[in-house]
Every structure is written in C-alpha cells, then in structure tokens.
C-alpha cells in the first residue's frame, strides 16, 4: 500500500526519527568494547552535558525512561527514607509508585492535573515534611502538557530544605532551557524517544556532587540500575553492561544535529511550535487544558467537547487521514487529546496538524471555518 | 574511506545484522500503544515461545541481557534465601554477583573455566546445600565458549531438589536446542544481540508455572524489572513501560527469518559452523580451549601461544584486514581469542575467518601452511 508508511506521528513520544539519524542507526554493528564505540560513548556523554547544563558526567542507560526514574529513587533513598513527590499527572504518580514500592515514606503534593506546581504550595509541603531527603518533580508532565517551573521549584527546595532535587525531564529535555548545575538539580533524567528524536531504548542521567555523596553512602542493593557502576565505567569510556549500540549511533547524530542548530535556536523553535499550536487551537474554538504560562513547548493538551463531541471520534478521523495524536490517560481518557510537537517538528508541521484537525472536526460534524486554525498559526509564525 | 564499513564482526555478540532486519528497524516510528505495535508484540511473544520450547508467555524487556539476569534473581529470591550458582566463567560469575548484591546466600559451584558442569559435581553441591531455592546456570558461557548440558543439569536439579532452575541463555538461544517446558527450565533469559541478530537493547524472558507461583508470593520490591507487570501487560498485548520500538520491528523480522529457515535447520547450521571452525583451527596447529563435547555451536575459544606468540598481536593483524574477533576476559585476557559464529553467519563466513587467520598468523611470524585451515573446514562442509 503506497501510503501505509506516510503518516504524521504527533504523539508526545515516541517522535519521528530524522533521516540522518535513521541512517546513522543503520551503520554496521560494532563491538561494544571497541575503541570506536568508546569514542561514541565519550562524545555523547560530553554533548549531553551541554544540553543538561552540567559539568558532571552524563550517563547513558540502555532501557526506557522509567528505569532511570527508578534509578534516581533507589540510588539516593533507602527503605524508610522520606520523600516528597510533587504529582502533576501520570508521570509524577509514577515517581510516587516507585517510592511506595521500595517502602520509602512517600509524601505526595498533589497538584490539580493541568496546572503547574506553585512554589507556595511547595513551601507549605516542605514545612509540613521537614525531614524529606529528596523532592521529586516532573519537568514536563506528558499527560497534561504542563511544564513545571523547575528553576524556581529547585531553588525553593534548596532555600527551605536539605533535600535533593530529582527531576524527570523525559518529555522536554532537548527542547527547553536546562541549567542543571546553576538551578540546583541533583539528578536529571531523560529519555531517547522525545525531544531527542530517537527510538525508545536509552535513558540519560546526570547527578550532582551532593547526590553522588548520598549515592556512594547508600547501601541499598541495585545492579543494572546502580549509577555508581555507570560512573565508574564512563571514566573508562564505556558502560557496565552491553549498551544499545544502534541507538548510540543515533544519539551521536542527534547530538550533532542539535549542536548544529544550536540549543538556543532549538528552544526558540519549540516555543514557536507551542505558540502556533495554541493560536490555531483557539482560532478553531477549541479549549486548551493548560494556561499559556503553564503549557509545555513540547506537547499541547486540548479538551474534548464533553457531551457534544468526543475527542476519541476526532482522533479516529485524524488517524484516517494519517495524523496520529494522543488521547488522554487514566481519568482523562476520552476527555482530552494531546498533540506532540517536539524533536523533528517544524512550523510547517503545525500547519499540517491544524489543517488535518479542521478537516476532521468537519467530518465529525463540528462547525468549523476551514483554514482558520492554519491562518492563526501562520500569523504567529510570520511575526515570530 | 571506501572500506571503512567493510569488516567481519566475529565476536560473540553483538553480531552482524541481516539487511532485511536493518530495513525493518528503519520503518517510520509508531506509537508504542498503537494497535500496530501491539500486533508486533503479540507476534514476537508467540514466536519466541517456539524457540524457547514453552507454552508460557514470553516476555520482552527493553534493556540488555544483564537486566534480565537480575530480573530472574530478584523476582524469585528474597534477601536471605539460599541460591546455588554454577559458575563456568564470567557470566556465571555475574549471576553470583547479583545474588550477592541482593544479600541472598550465594553458594558457588565453581567449574574450571573451559569445562562444562558435570552432573556429578552438581549432585554433590545439591547434597551439600539441600535448602537452596534456585540453581543458576549459564547455557553458553560466552567467556570460554562452553555449552553446559542444560537438559541433563535441569533434570538433575529436579531429581535432587525442589529448587527452581534458572538459565542464562543469552549467547546461544536461537542457535541451539531448547525445550524449556520439557527440560524443566523455570526461568529462561536471552538477549537480542547474539543469535537473534539484532542490536543490543532487548532481553527476552519466559517463566514456568512453578516460578510464577514463587514470583507472585515474593514481596521483594522491584519496578522496571517486575516480571509480574510484564506478564499482566502482555495479556493486553503491550508492555508496562515504553518498549524499544525499533528493536521490536527488527525482532519481528528476525523471528520471521528463523521460522523461514526452520529451527532445526538453524541448529544444524550452527553445529556445522562449530565443526568447520574447530577442524580449521586444528589444521592450523592451534589449540582449542574446550573439548568437542563441551564446545558451544556459537563461539569458539582458541588458546594463544603462551610465551611464543600473543593472541592480542594476532587480533591486531586480523583487525587490520577487517576481521574482528574477541580476546579473553579477566584472567584469560591475552591468553585466548574467541571467534563468534552465531546468527547471521554461514559456512562461507567460516572459510573467510580461517583465511584471515592464516594470513594473520603468517604476519605475526608463525609457521603456517596457507589454505590448510580453510581446506579442513571445506572438507567438513562438503561432507555435512
């Protein structure tokens, strides 16, 4: 079928793979202990440091993002330790689940889904739980499209507590500002299949001096997710266990592409994609789930029509014309849909998505002025 | 450089990727919760069952083989539980390290490196440690090229104990016989980058009814490596965490290729590759590390020349003409070299390797009758 592989993958990860990255991943396999592989690992680690904004060594795990969330938890905490987990959606909840599972004491600061964490809420929670050893945040909460103000939140933690600041940056690092060292992030975790434009299968982690001290003194058992072994092996430009070599080939090319565009330009591009998407959605009379201020540059959540129309019916029409967007998760299932616009995505792609949305709204019988969403996005674009 | 990517990767994993598998992995990215991805996961799981020889559900983890060794340990055992680990080399030792790390009581049955475990040794060890809850084996010990007689060993365990039989099949499953259910294997673990002809990054696991009972009652914490969550999600044709989608594309194609050739033919092919390699090595006057009986069909270990010549010098010459073989690990470093002949490897590849070996032996100044190793291998081939 001619058009079988012609579709726009606009979910908030996995995201489309650029051709040169695809090509890099198709290089002939090499030994993972070869000099060539070591050179790639070293280069990737160095380049990741620039994106993370850290002088610490960036580590690469061959597994998906959740494994690195778990690594953060079990490397810094022991059973019985207290943790504060700020939950703004599904992925904040995942941190809390891991903390619970390992019999640590989990205090949840539950923020209403669709809103970012307010520093005042955080101060209250820190006062209520003065002995927490770590505070867990989600930088971009993929399930709602919220970007938490990590810079401010990290500073707030350090002003009011001795706790470590652990940040899940899976669905935004590589698309948004990040100054890990300056902001006081103690562990930063991200994954390959979002703004890094790779297939899933790699997780990237960096750890502050302060957190390394805690980790070195933490006797809790861990093996595949023991960050100390990754640090030790990275000094020898390798990994403790066989890495996902083809994804490393791709990561090297991705980091080259990001450096070529320049991180400031990459960040500006994602900001523009966000603004174009939001302008287009508004022009179509649809309701955004998050405020402009709280919204992430990587994913936009849009409310379904309640009793009037279903976001699932809309997604089905979109899919029929080759545009894949995400639905809502858990209690948001059927109530919202989400457009991913990170990584290999440019302003014209937003026009394409909005165009498909207009046609699909029409198909499910919604009143829609064709072209109006596209026009609003174009206005943002040409004035950027 | 024209010949930069023209090399023969003949280490015991990662192994070369067949072109159609490479192509499958280059398909456009899809959502991991899509129907299409579910269909791939279901198909892969079913096909893996045939190769494992099990009616149990085969599970797919996105991480390297070691993570699945760890999963086997931490899912069936709790701290304080006794385990018997049969170590025949580096990877048996890895099992023992994991057991130690999690504060289980690890009894080691240390078999001389280069030899397979003798059932009589095993019976003695089981008598000495009658309360072990699990016995850990390495089917193919990659570091020495030994294939342990897993069928006999598993039966021996069940005759003399109630312990579960856990098998690391990373460097041989997909190339050697395996009847998990009939042989009484309780957990079988393998990886993508060996006989499965894929890049590293996937681990495949199957679990017996008996082991599932133990796992369900094991309160020890685990999250990314919690096999129960993989079983639960596999019932819904998905995975608990984002899987390495591009590797799943590849796995589907690999399983198709293996089914097309037929597992009996695949197993015969690897047996032939082993016999050709050994005949060639002997004809060149080199010494094999393992007996014919103990040797694996997937990897052959050859002794270096002691004081007379160095296997590292030989490897360097081989590499210069585009043939990559592995050295020895740990105390075998510099003392042996290892030829991987599994997965995407046919009889002609063995002639190529032997040919390169003859030229390289000549280059390091060893007396060698050019063509003699190749000839011996050809004799085996034409009479097969």
UniProtKB/TrEMBL annotation, chains A, B:
<dbReference type="InterPro" id="IPR015421">
    <property type="entry name" value="PyrdxlP-dep_Trfase_major"/>
</dbReference>
<dbReference type="GO" id="GO:0008453">
    <property type="term" value="F:alanine-glyoxylate transaminase activity"/>
</dbReference>
<feature type="binding site">
    <location>
        <position position="338"/>
    </location>
    <ligand>
        <name>substrate</name>
    </ligand>
</feature>
<dbReference type="InterPro" id="IPR015424">
    <property type="entry name" value="PyrdxlP-dep_Trfase"/>
</dbReference>
<dbReference type="InterPro" id="IPR020578">
    <property type="entry name" value="Aminotrans_V_PyrdxlP_BS"/>
</dbReference>
<keyword id="KW-0808">Transferase</keyword>
<comment type="similarity">
    <text>Belongs to the class-V pyridoxal-phosphate-dependent aminotransferase family.</text>
</comment>
<dbReference type="GO" id="GO:0004760">
    <property type="term" value="F:L-serine-pyruvate transaminase activity"/>
</dbReference>
<dbReference type="InterPro" id="IPR000192">
    <property type="entry name" value="Aminotrans_V_dom"/>
</dbReference>
<keyword id="KW-0663">Pyridoxal phosphate</keyword>
<feature type="modified residue" description="N6-(pyridoxal phosphate)lysine">
    <location>
        <position position="194"/>
    </location>
</feature>
<dbReference type="GO" id="GO:0019265">
    <property type="term" value="P:glycine biosynthetic process, by transamination of glyoxylate"/>
</dbReference>
<dbReference type="InterPro" id="IPR024169">
    <property type="entry name" value="SP_NH2Trfase/AEP_transaminase"/>
</dbReference>
<dbReference type="InterPro" id="IPR015422">
    <property type="entry name" value="PyrdxlP-dep_Trfase_small"/>
</dbReference>
<feature type="domain" description="Aminotransferase class V">
    <location>
        <begin position="29"/>
        <end position="330"/>
    </location>
</feature>
<protein>
    <submittedName>
        <fullName>Aspartate aminotransferase</fullName>
    </submittedName>
</protein>
<dbReference type="Pfam" id="PF00266">
    <property type="entry name" value="Aminotran_5"/>
</dbReference>
<keyword id="KW-0032">Aminotransferase</keyword>
């Amino acid at each position: 079928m001619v058009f079988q592989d012609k579709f726009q993958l606009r979910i908030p990860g996995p995201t489309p793979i650029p051709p040169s990255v695809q090509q890099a991943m198709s290089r002939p396999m090499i030994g993972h202990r070869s000099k060539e592989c070591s050179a790639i690992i070293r280069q990737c680690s160095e380049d990741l440091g620039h994106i993370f904004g850290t002088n610490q060594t960036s580590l690469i795990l061959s597994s998906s993002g959740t494994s690195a969330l778990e690594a953060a938890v079990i490397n810094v905490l022991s059973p019985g330790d207290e943790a504060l987990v700020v939950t703004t959606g599904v992925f904040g909840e995942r941190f809390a689940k891991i903390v619970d599972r390992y019999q640590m004491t989990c205090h949840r600061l539950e923020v209403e889904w669709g809103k970012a964490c307010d520093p005042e809420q955080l101060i209250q929670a820190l006062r209520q739980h003065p002995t927490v050893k770590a505070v867990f945040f989600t930088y971009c909460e993929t399930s709602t499209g919220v970007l938490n103000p990590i810079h401010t939140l990290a500073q707030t933690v350090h002003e009011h507590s001795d706790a470590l600041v652990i940040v899940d940056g899976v669905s935004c690092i590589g698309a948004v500002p990040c100054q890990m060292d300056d902001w006081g992030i103690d562990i930063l975790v991200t994954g390959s299949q979002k703004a890094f434009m790779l297939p899933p299968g790699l997780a990237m982690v960096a750890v502050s001096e302060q957190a390394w001290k805690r980790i070195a003194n933490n006797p809790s058992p861990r093996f595949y997710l023991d960050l100390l072994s990754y640090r030790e092996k990275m000094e020898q430009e390798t990994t403790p266990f066989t890495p996902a070599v083809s994804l490393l080939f791709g990561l090297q090319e991705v980091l080259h592409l990001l450096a070529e565009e320049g991180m400031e330009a990459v960040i500006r591009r994602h900001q523009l994609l966000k603004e174009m998407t939001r302008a287009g959605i508004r022009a179509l009379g649809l309701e955004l789930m998050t405020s402009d201020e709280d919204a992430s540059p990587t994913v936009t959540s849009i409310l379904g029509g309640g009793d009037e129309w279903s976001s699932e019916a809309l997604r089905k029409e979109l899919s029929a014309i080759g545009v894949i967007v995400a639905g809502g998760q858990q209690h948001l299932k059927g109530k919202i849909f989400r457009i991913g616009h990170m990584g290999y995505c440019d302003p014209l792609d937003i026009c394409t998505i909005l165009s498909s949305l207009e046609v699909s709204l029409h198909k499910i019988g919604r009143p829609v002025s064709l072209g109006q969403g596209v026009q609003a996005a174009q206005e943002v674009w040409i004035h950027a």
